[in-house]
């Protein structure tokens, strides 16, 4: 009894119907010096159960098995059902041996005969019963916790009783290997045979070393054979227990299925190997930036790319910044800041200074790591030398500019006959009028000569009758009334012809101007008017052209010459489509060109009354080299170029709407550079009198 945990306070429920026995037991308990007893009393089983329910912190119950409302073992059973968490001591009379044995079997912790109740015996029985009962409950709780842990875990549990050569396996252990409980005899031989032959020796050596050296818990990764013959990877853990002599007596542990993890690790290893080979093959350099310490690592390939040596390299972020071209440094920092802030992809092209002073183009990509609090701790990535690519792009861009200019000049060449005719018409009547002026001047000069003679004669007071007759005859001869009427009209016609020639030449000059390789602010409405003028001879015999141009349209940041080419191609296509409908009937179709502001986009619409397109043609209309025209009349490049200019060069959109027999409409939208607020203000200011300018060109 030396290991009893003797409490200092004990609450006792005494269920007894004999008042003298109650007084006797209370007196004994209250006189025990080292323990303070609180004694509750009940005279019947019912009162005892009610009293317990009101005092569930009762430590022990002294239960008389013979009560007015219960007798014998039934009394114990009912009391235990009401108080399963509290120790019970049976109080019996003489000759109750069978009841005592059954009561002890029924969860009673002890018994005491009424005739044997003494202070020392009662104290010992009460304290011992409480201690045993608490230990028993703790053991039950511990076993329940273990069983719950075994049942709830995904791991298989094993327990090896070394001295008895016995092995216990949990239900989950069987399931992990694909067995039902009982299908796999839990013997050491079977257990060892489960492991892959290549892993068996290392497993047994590891366990043997653990048992001999008594080191920390054993763990290793091995393959185990399942019921269907497949080998899966498992993590095996174990811990042995040694006796006082140092001999192992027991070892228990678990197995965890790590097959998927091992497969991913193998795949990751292969992926890393592939990545390493790819990096070497691609010729890119790698960098790694510790954001916390601001240290930066460059691979040898990166250093060689810039001609940097170990002596000149500084493992600092500032060394990297210093080598970036000053014009590119802001965009690089902005890209990196955005990535570190919200994970925006870091993929940027910029120039870096080589050790020999020249700049090379590089493309850098990177990915950051963030701490749990959201702060970035590290960023790593790759860098590739794209100088040759950039040079090739620049050459291609220059070539494309020249090609587009050549295409424009080719288009002008194709329109040359029509343009020459357009210039020839006003030139012809200017010439005719000039010759008319020449003849009229001779007649008027002769008439003026007679007038001068008549004036001289009048001044000399000579006979002027003959001169007056000659003047009248001359007036009739030169038809002065006709000259006075026709000369002003001929002069005005000549001025109009010269203005027409001037407009055509100016439009040609502006249309054919190569423009800038970069975008610039341009008046789209004016450009459209010039294009309509240049293309007049293509459409004037088959169609009228109406322009509905928004006067409040702001200047657009664009490539003007390329947009002009787009409009020209579409006007020519529209004229050809209308000609297919009207033929040589003399009837006229209509081409309508309009502009307007749609939010922050400049929209250009070109609509015709031609024959329209079927669905299969409409779906392919922007494909390169696709054309429905006869051989020699179309290359299929016009609309493909238009699509490339609008979408690729201006980040815009171009759509087509068409219906067979009714016509076609092309809708172009390109971004406007002007701020949206100022544009809206301009629209509001002109709302009352800002009607669109509509011009019919015939």
* Through-space gap between termini: 125 Å
Question: By helix and strand content, what is the structural category?
Answer: alpha+beta
Helix content: 40-55%
User: Average pLDDT value?
Assistant: 81
CATH top level class name of the largest domain: Alpha Beta
Indicate the radius of gyration in whole angstroms. 55 Å
Instruction: Tell me the strand order in the biggest sheet.
Output: 23-24-22-21-19-25
| Overall 3D form | elongated
Instruction: Supply the CATH architecture of the largest domain.
Output: 2-Layer Sandwich
Counting DSSP E segments of at least 2 residues, the number of strands comes to: 25
| Number of helical elements | 22
> Mind describing the biggest β-sheet?
6 strands, mixed
Give the total of domains: 5
CATH topology of the largest domain: Heat Shock Protein 90
Query: What do we call the CATH homologous superfamily of the largest domain?
Result: Histidine kinase-like ATPase, C-terminal domain
Low-confidence stretches: 631-636, 674-691
| Strand fraction | 15-25%
Task: Please provide a brief summary of the model.
The protein has 698 residues and is an alpha+beta fold. It contains 22 helices and 25 strands. The longest helix has 45 residues, at 416-460.
Describe the structure.
With 698 residues, this protein is of the alpha+beta class. The protein has 5 domains: 9-149, Response regulator (Rossmann fold, 3-Layer(aba) Sandwich); 153-263, PAS domain (Beta-Lactamase); 283-385, Beta-Lactamase, CATH 3.30.450.20; 391-514, no CATH class; 519-697, Histidine kinase-like ATPase, C-terminal domain (Heat Shock Protein 90), CATH 3.30.565. Mean pLDDT is 81; it is low at 631-636 and 674-691.
């Amino acid at each position: 009894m030396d290991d009893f945990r003797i409490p200092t306070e004990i609450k006792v429920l005494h269920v007894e119907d004999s008042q003298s026995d109650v007084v006797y037991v209370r007196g004994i308990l209250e006189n025990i010096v080292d323990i303070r007893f609180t004694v509750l009393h009940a005279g019947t089983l019912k009162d005892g159960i009610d009293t317990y329910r009101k005092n569930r912190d009762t430590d022990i119950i002294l239960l008389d098995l013979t009560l007015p409302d219960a007798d014998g073992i039934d009394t114990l059973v009912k009391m235990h059902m009401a108080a399963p968490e509290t120790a019970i001591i049976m109080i019996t009379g003489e000759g109750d041996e069978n009841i005592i044995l059954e009561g002890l079997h029924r969860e009673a912790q002890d018994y005491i005969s009424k005739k044997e109740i003494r202070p020392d015996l009662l104290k010992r029985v009460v304290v011992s019963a409480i201690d045993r009962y608490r230990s028993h409950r703790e053991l039950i709780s511990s076993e329940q916790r273990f069983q719950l842990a075994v049942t709830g875990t995904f791991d298989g549990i094993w327990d090896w009783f070394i001295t008895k050569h016995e092995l216990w396996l949990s239900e989950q252990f069987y399931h992990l290997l694909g067995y039902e409980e009982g299908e796999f005899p839990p013997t050491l031989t079977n257990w060892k045979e489960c492991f892959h032959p290549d892993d068996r020796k290392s497993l047994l050596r590891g366990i043997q070393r653990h048992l001999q050296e008594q080191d920390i818990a054993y763990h290793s990764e091995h393959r185990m054979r399942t019921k269907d013959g497949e080998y899966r990877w498992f993590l095996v853990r174990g811990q042995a227990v040694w006796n006082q002599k140092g001999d192992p007596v027991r070892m228990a542990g678990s197995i965890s299925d790590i097959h998927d993890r091992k497969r991913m690790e193998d795949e990751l290893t292969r992926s890393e190997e592939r990545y390493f080979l790819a990096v070497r093959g691609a010729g890119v350099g790698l960098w790694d930036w510790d954001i916390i310490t601001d240290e930066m690592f460059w691979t040898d390939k990166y250093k060689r790319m810039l001609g940097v040596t170990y002596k000149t390299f500084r493992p600092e972020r500032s060394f990297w910044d210093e080598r970036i071209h000053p014009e590119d440094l802001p965009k690089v920092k902005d890209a990196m800041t955005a990535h570190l802030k919200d994970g925006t992809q870091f993929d940027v092209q910029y120039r870096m200074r080589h050790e020999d002073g020249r700049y090379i183009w590089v493309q850098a990509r990177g990915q950051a790591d963030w701490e749990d609090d959201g702060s970035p701790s590290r960023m790593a990535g790759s860098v590739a030398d794209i100088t040759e690519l950039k040079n090739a792009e620049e050459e291609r861009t220059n070539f494309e500019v020249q090609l587009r200019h050549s295409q424009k000049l080719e288009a002008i060449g194709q329109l040359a006959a029509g343009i020459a005719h357009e210039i020839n018409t006003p030139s012809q009547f200017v010439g005719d009028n000039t010759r008319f002026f020449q003849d009229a001047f001779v007649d008027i000069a002769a008439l003026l000569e007679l007038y001068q003679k008549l004036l001289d004669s009048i001044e000399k007071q000579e006979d002027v009758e003959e001169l007056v007759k000659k003047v009248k005859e001359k007036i009739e001869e030169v038809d002065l009334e006709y000259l006075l009427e026709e000369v002003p009209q001929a002069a005005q016609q000549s001025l109009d012809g010269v203005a027409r020639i001037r407009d055509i030449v100016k439009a040609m000059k502006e249309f054919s101007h190569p423009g800038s390789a970069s975008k610039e602010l341009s008046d789209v409405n004016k450009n459209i008017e010039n294009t309509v003028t240049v293309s007049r001879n293509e459409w004037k015999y088959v169609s009228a052209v109406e322009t509905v141009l928004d006067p409040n349209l702001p200047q657009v940041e664009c490539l003007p010459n390329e947009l002009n080419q787009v409009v020209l191609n579409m006007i020519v296509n529209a004229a050809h489509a209308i000609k297919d409908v009207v033929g040589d009937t003399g009837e006229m179709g209509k081409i309508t060109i309009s502009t307007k502001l749609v939010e922050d986009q400049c929209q250009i619409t070109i609509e015709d009354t031609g024959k329209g397109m079927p669905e299969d043609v409409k779906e392919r209309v922007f494909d390169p080299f696709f054309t429905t025209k006869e051989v020699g009349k179309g290359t299929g490049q016009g609309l493909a170029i238009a699509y490339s200019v609008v979408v690729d060069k201006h980040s815009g959109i171009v759509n087509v709407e068409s219906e067979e027999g009714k016509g076609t409409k092309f809708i172009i939208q390109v971004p406007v550079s002007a701020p949206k607020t100022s544009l809206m203000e301009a629209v509001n200011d002109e709302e009352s009198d800002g009607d669109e300018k509509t011009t019919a060109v015939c």
